[in-house]
Design brief:
The protein is built from 13 helices and 15 strands. With 490 residues, it is an alpha+beta fold. Strands 6, 7, 8, 9, 10 and 11 form a six-stranded mixed β-sheet that branches. A five-stranded antiparallel β-sheet has the order 4-3-15-14-13, sandwiched between helices. It has a two-stranded antiparallel ribbon with strand order 1-2. Strand 1 and strand 2 form a beta hairpin. Helix 6 packs across helix 7 and helix 9 packs across helix 10. It is elongated, with a radius of gyration of 28 Å.
Length: 490
């Protein structure tokens, strides 16, 4: 460093006068620009979590329009409702993490929630649980340990079990292997495999490209095609029967068996997703110069078959988020079966139910009266308690279980995303409540997290059955969640 300073001094002393003027001008301009930029930032107002507070306030007040595809128009962002999880020291020397804000009291929450829980729109059977995420303490409960039909809130249990069994980075492979008389398309259980144009982690077109290249490299331009769905077992049809909300379960399907261009919500479904996927794959291979002899047929790949092409699903964390945000039944059932496979159970409804139940027990969750019948919540035989769901959400926020964090990040944001995008339009909970919805005829539920008025992160679950007015029940549930978010309750 002394040598550098000596060189700089000699250069300055020997430099021409005009060059030294230029250096002074550039330096002065840089300082002036920094001062102007600093003043502009200060004038723009305070910042919080990387977003100017004024902008965040406008975003929270703006209309919730548009879809949720990343390629679509931009939408306002909700407040960073998971900020209290950081646990770091604040700028003033005190704690700013999840345990910094004062916790509401039992009496305060009871005074706030009990009248709302008596709303006639909730039906005769209702239960509630509110848990302090920082301590795991239950702050409010009403029939919280009784198991009720949860509808789609059971997807929280499915997601937690899958993440616990496989980890957030796990991917599901769809492969092409050599067979006795040709090639075999082997389904791994990825419902996001797509035949549509565009980019995707698991594209049937990409798989066809790789397969055609591999065959031509071997001098093969004509082959037979089989498809293998043996990774799954048991009945393919859900207990609710043919339905626009779920396709027959198969280890091989494209676009969730949808017969239109939708990617969420109800849609007409294929009666045989595997055969349709194999037929589309054959067409794609023909387009790439590989002739397929006859129609694809079902069968099993040889035990030690050579893999010649593969595509992989998005990571499990992304599948969990998509299943929760959009309440995607097909992905949820796939997650349950992947949990079964990881646990040494058959990838059937029964095997998946046992595997999910076992994983929840290993997480130390209250399982009294619980019954897991499927992964999606479409089966009314599902039974869980409000206490199980609220404590599951608190466990997902626990630093000792980082693998469960996608359970929280996948929750719809009130008034902004997923199944809550069109709700909370006039509620104070808009942007601060994140929750999984559940709806069947006569059943309405809501389970999620909210940051209360003092900045405390709370997990809640509200389960109701016997409801006669689904819209009224939803409004009553939204008022309960909004009350949690708006409550200091001390």
């Amino acid at each position: 460093m002394p040598e550098a300073r000596t060189w700089q001094f000699r250069w300055w002393r020997n430099a021409p006068r005009e060059q030294r003027r230029t250096v002074r001008f550039v330096a002065a301009s840089a300082v002036t620009g920094l001062v102007v930029a600093t003043g502009a930032v200060a004038a723009a107002g305070p910042w919080d979590s990387g977003q100017r507070k004024a902008e965040r306030a406008r975003a929270a007040a703006g209309p919730a329009t548009g879809g949720e595809r990343h390629a679509g128009p931009r939408h306002p962002l909700a407040a960073p409702v998971l900020a209290p999880l950081d646990g770091q020291s604040g700028a003033r020397g005190g704690k700013s993490g999840r345990a910094a804000a004062p916790a509401p009291t039992r009496d305060g929450l009871t005074d706030t929630l009990k009248p709302l829980l008596e709303d006639d729109g909730l039906g005769p059977d209702r239960s509630a649980s509110v848990v302090d995420v920082a301590t795991g303490e239950q702050l409010y409960g009403a029939d919280q340990d009784t198991a009720y039909t949860p509808a789609s809130t059971v997807k929280l249990a499915t997601a937690a079990a899958a993440l616990s069994a496989l980890g957030p980075d796990h991917r599901i492979d769809t492969t092409v292997v050599t067979g006795k008389d040709g090639i075999v398309l082997v389904g791994g259980g990825d419902p996001t495999l797509t035949a549509r144009q565009g980019t995707a982690d698991a594209s049937l077109r990409t798989l066809a490209d790789a397969t055609a290249r591999a065959l031509k490299a071997r001098g093969t331009t004509r082959t037979k095609l089989m498809y293998d769905t043996s990774r799954y077992s048991g009945p393919a049809q859900h207990v609710i029967g043919p339905n626009e909300n779920i396709a027959p379960l198969s280890a091989l399907m494209i676009d969730e068996g949808r017969q239109d261009d939708s990617d969420r919500g109800p849609a007409e479904r294929s009666a045989d997703p595997a055969a349709d996927a194999a037929g589309e794959f054959a067409s794609l291979l023909r387009e790439r110069g590989v002739e397929i002899e006859g129609d694809p047929s079902g069968g099993s790949a040889p035990a030690k078959a050579e893999r010649i092409a593969v595509v992989s699903s998005p990571p499990l964390s992304a599948l969990v988020e998509r299943s929760l945000t959009n309440s995607d039944n097909d992905i949820a059932e796939a997650l349950a079966r992947q949990t079964a496979l990881a646990s040494g159970q058959p990838a059937s409804f029964e095997g998946a139910a046992k595997a999910v139940t076992d994983r929840l027990s290993k997480l130390g969750l209250p399982m009294s009266g619980a019954r897991i019948a499927d992964g999606s919540g479409l089966d009314r035989a599902d039974q869980v308690s409000a206490s199980l769901l609220s404590r599951l959400l608190a466990r997902a926020a626990d630093p000792s279980h980082p693998e469960l964090r996608p359970v929280l990040t996948g929750l719809p944001v009130a008034g902004f995303s997923g199944t809550l995008r069109s709700r909370y339009a006039d509620e104070a909970g808009r942007g601060t409540v994140r929750a999984k919805t559940g709806t069947l005829t006569g059943v309405n539920s809501l389970a999620g997290t909210a940051v209360d008025a003092d900045g405390r992160l709370l997990a809640f679950a509200f389960l109701t059955s016997g409801t006669g007015d689904p819209d009224g029940a939803q409004r009553a549930l939204d008022r309960l969640a909004t009350a949690v978010a708006g409550c200091g309750c001390r």
